[in-house]
Recover the amino acids of this structure.
């Protein structure tokens, strides 16, 4: 499992630029917002957590279609299906490797973009924390879409269409927790705990559904 994690981590970084492409796309999405909103610093500060979350969500969708594509292309997907290691565990490790290579850099870059949106320290910390907790759920959901579209030559758009509606609850509670931390620290805990619950839920359901989809695709 360690060898699989390191292998997928290298492939995720090399394929299409990996973390660098995601961070640049994240920066681009957040950077264009002030030009559309205008020079209202108070408005930028108020909508900052939502904009950072939306940018991170869209950037996290990049490369999801390649989660199982390398194994499909070189034929190792058949070996994954026949090995003694449970396929669910293999998918879980691949999801962690993909999250480490693509979403974790977004979490690290979010404080810098928070400053760009004129967010205060509490908002920046809360947004980064909610991204750290909630972004793995996006990867687990994306694994299902990637498994469904793995046999398609250009399944990137299909993966985004399948995954985006399912990530809306993660976005809602992530933004709600970030706003709650700024307005009143007391209400921060309920949406934050729900966000953790969503991540744990999809950590169980996502790899299992992806493994089932991979087996059906092979059949």
């Amino acid at each position: 499992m360690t060898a699989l994690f390191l292998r997928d981590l290298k492939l995720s970084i090399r394929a299409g630029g990996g973390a660098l492409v995601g961070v640049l796309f994240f920066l681009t999405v957040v950077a264009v917002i002030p030009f559309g909103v205008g020079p209202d610093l108070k408005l930028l500060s108020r909508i900052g957590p939502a904009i950072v979350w939306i940018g991170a969500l869209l950037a996290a969708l990049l490369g999801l279609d390649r989660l199982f594509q390398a194994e499909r292309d070189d034929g190792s997907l058949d070996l994954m299906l026949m090995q003694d290691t449970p396929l669910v565990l293999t998918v879980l490790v691949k999801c962690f490797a993909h999250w480490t290579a693509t979403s974790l850099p977004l979490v690290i870059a979010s404080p810098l973009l928070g400053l760009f949106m004129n967010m205060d320290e509490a908002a920046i910390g809360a947004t980064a924390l909610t991204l750290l907790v909630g972004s793995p759920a996006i990867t687990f959901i994306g694994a299902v879409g990637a498994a469904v579209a793995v046999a398609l030559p250009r399944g990137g758009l299909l993966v985004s269409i399948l995954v985006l509606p399912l990530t809306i609850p993660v976005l809602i509670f992530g933004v709600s927790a970030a706003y709650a931390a700024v307005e009143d620290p007391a209400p921060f805990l309920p949406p934050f705990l729900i966000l953790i619950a969503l991540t744990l839920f999809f950590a169980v359901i996502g790899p299992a559904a992806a493994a089932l989809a991979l087996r059906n695709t092979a059949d």
Q: What stands out?
A: The chain has a mean pLDDT of 82. DSSP finds ten helices and no strands in the chain. Residues 87-116 form the longest helix (30 residues).
